[in-house]
């Protein structure tokens, strides 16, 4: 019987302690061991994944800022098409000119 009354007295003091801390700034400073353990695990996990997160961010940023192979290929294809068109114009223009060594019609 004495053990039961001792236990009830402990519960009352704990309840009184929590009631006195409710609504105060000090209430947030008291942390349960489970919460401290979870926080510690979270810190360790963050430390492990921090380099991985940094590498992922750098890869994503590099993809956004880098010029892709498709863009370079399209620019080179456009330049090549312009050069071919320029060459074709001059080739057709010069090939239709009359050669000065040939005489027009000698009938």
Quick overview:
This protein has 107 residues and is an all-alpha fold. It contains four helices and no strands. The protein has helices at 2-21, 26-29, 33-65, 69-95.
Topology:
Elements (H helix, E strand, L loop, with lengths): L1 H20 L4 H4 L3 H33 L3 H27 L12
Would you kindly provide a written description of the structure presented here, covering whatever features stand out?
The chain has helices at residues 2-21, 26-29, 33-65, 69-95. The mean pLDDT is 76. The chain has four helices and no strands. The chain has 107 residues and is mostly helical. It is rod-shaped. The longest helix is centred in the middle third of the chain and has 33 residues, at 33-65. InterPro entries: TRIQK (IPR024842). The chain crosses the membrane at residues 72-94. This is Triple QxxK/R motif-containing protein. Belongs to the TRIQK family. It comes from Equus asinus.
């Amino acid at each position: 019987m004495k053990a039961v009354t001792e236990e009830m007295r402990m519960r009352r003091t704990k309840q009184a302690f929590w009631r006195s801390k409710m609504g105060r700034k000090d209430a947030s400073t008291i942390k349960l061991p489970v919460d401290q353990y979870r926080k510690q695990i979270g810190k360790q996990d963050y430390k492990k994944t921090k380099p991985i997160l940094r590498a992922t961010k750098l890869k994503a940023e590099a993809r956004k800022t880098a010029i892709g192979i498709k863009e370079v290929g399209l620019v080179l294809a456009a330049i090549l098409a312009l050069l071919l068109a320029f060459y074709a114009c001059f080739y057709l223009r010069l090939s239709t000119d009359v050669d000065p060594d040939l005489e027009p019609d000698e009938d």
